[in-house]
Fold:
Amino acid sequence: MSDQIVAIATPPGESALSAIRLSGDDCISLVQSLTTSSIGEHQKAKRVLLKDPISGVLLDDVVVICYRESSSYTGEEMVEIFCHGGNITVHNVFNSLVKAGARPAPPGEFSKRAVLNGKIDIIQAESIEQIVKARSSKEAELSLQTLKGSLSKVLSSILLQLEEILVEMDARLSFPNDVYEEDSLVFLRVKTLQSEIQSLINASSYSSIINKGFSVVLMGKTNVGKSTLFNVLVGFERTVVSPYPSTTHDYVSEIVSWEGYPITIFDTAGVITINPSPLDEIFNNRMESLYDSAFMLLYVIDAMDCSQEDLKMISSNKRPNMVIVVNKTDLSKEDPKWLSNLPDDSRIVKVSAINKTGIDPLVTSIIDGIKKVIGQEPDYYVNQRQSSILVNINNVLDRITCSSEPFMDMAVEDIKEAIFIMKEELNVSHSKELLNDIFSHFCIGK
Amino acid sequence: MNHFDVLVVGAGHAGCEAALASARMGCNTALVTINLDTIAWMPCNPAIGGSGKSQVIAEIDALGGEIALNAEKSLAQIRVLNTSRGLALRSKRVQCDKYAYSNNMKFLLEREPNLTLYQSIIDSLIIDHNKCIGVKDIHEEDIFAKCIILTTGTHLAGKIHVGWVSYDAGRGGELVGGKLSSSLHNVGLDVRRFNTGTTPRIDKKSVDYSKLSEQPGESFPISLSYITKRKIWEPQLSSFLGWTNEKTIETTKKYLQYSPSKSGNMTKVGPRTCPSIEEKVQWFPENAKHSIFLEQEGFKTDEVYIAGLNMSIYPRFQLEILKTIKGLENVKMFRPAYAIAYDWVHTSEIKTSLETIKFENLFLAGQINGTTGYDEAAAQGIIAGINAASKVKGLEQFIPSRQISYIGVMLDDMINKELVEPYRITPSHVECRMLNREDNADQRLTPIGRKYGLVSDERWKIFNEKMESIEKGRMFVKENKINPNKETIETLQNMSYPTIHQSYSYFDILKRTDWNEKMLSAISKEFDSFPKDVKEELVIESKYEGYIRREKNERKKIQKYRNFKFPMDFDFSALTMLSKDSLISIIEKKPKTIAETQKLPGVRPSDIIILISMLKKMKLLS
Structure:
């Protein structure tokens, strides 16, 4: 028996429509008690008038969709009501449903029921939250893949491998005369599995970066046109632009989404190197730490005015993800001579921020930089919680693989602990009868 | 004389331990056997111990049983298995001179006070108002006893199958206890059928040993029983390792149709731990290379047992298969292999004390309970013996829990899990195997054996001395330190031992994977002066401390929550993290408590730990 719960599924505020959903045994008849039209046909939208069950006052003209247990989100009987949005109507409908006997659901209860009823696992439930809170289409895409089971599949394959390793180890210990393969083979399997787990952990840093966004920082001397370029990149006049040096003092940032990647672009004040005032020092320090943490640096140079100082800055901030942007190319038809002084492997893009030329190649160059660092994109979203558990599991397995001559009897216990953590913390399910497995893998017998 | 306190039917490994336990507890005991010449016979492999089994042997020995001591008296070879795989699951295996083993046990039984040996065949039970009060034998004479223990082995309606031929017989072709099975059936016990088998015996002189690899016994000081001083055993008989090949498989396949299980003459299941070569060929068709071990059956015989080649086809075909093996090209066969089907009583009929539920004072032990193996049988024998004698004397029944012993695991599994094949104990059945080791069975069980009167004064004295020494050792390794001073570091360097950079207690340095008992003994004369078994104990307690602690915590957790009652409307289907078999069983049986859940078939001990953790997450447990 599950009680009937109700919640408003859409955010508050003025809107044309709002959605309310209910879940629990007989929740269809609960909604039925608010209308004279007959509802209940599975997954069919039906337009009905809802009235308060006690006062009989008309509540709203709504669309109702009913779901049977077998194919609802929660695995229970469910109803979705689409009513008019805003601050009044949706609440009236909601309150009447509560009066009719539904209990207001705390956040997450629908998903919890879906988990308890075996419709989705915890990993998938977590991905729903990620979809709802996604800040870029890449993040939403990955979370959706995860909801569809991509991560669950990988995790249960890891669990399966752990259980197989357990069987192999136990077979050796239980039937020492019947397993001929070297013990080192099974320890090698642990090592291989660890690298698989490690790639999940790596995927989590990808997940976190697509959640937080890639930071692309504009750098360069004052008055080379960083802010003009920044405004062009973000698509509107975000910062004040003037012909005077140091118009921008602190940094400003704006989020853009290119090819689905969330990118935060930072416009910075140029570093003041000549006679910096105490205030300049403070800003300089702030800039330095921003440069250090940047995913990518765009070093902007004035095509007409490149100094030794630029070359110095470039080489001291050199990193794989650095693009040298030669700005103000509108003022010079020929390549500046000093270009050849830049390090050989420099990536150089020529733009004219003021004329908005060369911008597309710059954007492509940034996206290429992102793709290069990411490498193969995972098709699942690994959140911080999951990642720290996986780290924990790998630490347990390290006890086996970091020892030069591991004891098999201890290793079995370590594997058991890893399996326990997977089941307990990640709620991964998969299991087979151990002894049956021993017999199906090895020929045992005296 | 036909009134006894305890009457044991059958003098195999279960019967001998049962009769000895009962007699040693002071009960007037009778042991009736079909053939006095084959007491404690080893009709299959003449060996005891091995992985999992040696822990059982150690536990029987710790309780004051005889199997370990008798094996030492008849020892033909002793080996330690799993030596490269750590310290906690090492297990000993002893091959015996099977004639000596039988003879030594018979002589011991003959001299045992309170024990009467008698040769006869028991035909039926005498039941009075749901109590078993005695038995009737083949000569139509009644023998009465306060408690009766049946240890029938393969004699209970035994039938040997060779090819398409079958005939009534017990182990090794002996007389069968035919009528007893129908008597059990007639009084309403649930009688089932299992089968098992053995391998051919060949002539030692007909083997070409140059084509086999020799496996000698251990040549360092060792003992099987806790009370025997470690020594180098001499002489020992070597075993020889050989391999099946493509031709063996091909030949076996050719004659598969004559296998009684294949032809439908014998349909019941045998233990998967002892598959016949016919079964191996069917189960692992791609695998041609199976190991076989040639094991000599005694010092005064040329008969050799071939481990790994159980067969049940016609003897002429058996010989043909044998000859495909390198080294056996000219082999002579003394006795053909056979399969044997026999009756057992479903374990839903017995309590964990091994007494039947329907008939008070009737106990069952050994293969009659669906197990396989001398070790498993002997363990049930001593438990049934203790409990029958306790019943007579008005003492509490002894039910070792699975948390403190392998025997407990076996009893619990036998009774609570559905046996689909003869049950053999292996470490994989056991959840607390870091706590319950071969080396510490005495610490776990000797005090209990003493309480029941099975542990002799001599054993008790040895035990107490060892415990005292261990206690002293525990203090010693925790209180003494090895410091990284110049002198120590030089000593370590000279011995090319791993160096140290900080000071360690002896207990902690032993935890390091690159340190062992030998090294510490070389550093510390005082540590070295402890007896070998005590030193080993201290090393294990240090190295495995974390694992032992974890098991203890789990054990405590289960103990703490075992009486937890599930709420009335608890939805078991939500327990998705449990293993599938476990979940199916739980949903079907709807247990009321965690303790009941533990006993369900398919539920693994690890499932209970997960269950507890899930209940905690659901805030049902604190």
In short: The two ends of chain A are 53 Å apart (CA to CA). Residues 431-435 of chain A have pLDDT under 50 and may be disordered. Chain A has 14 helices and twelve strands.
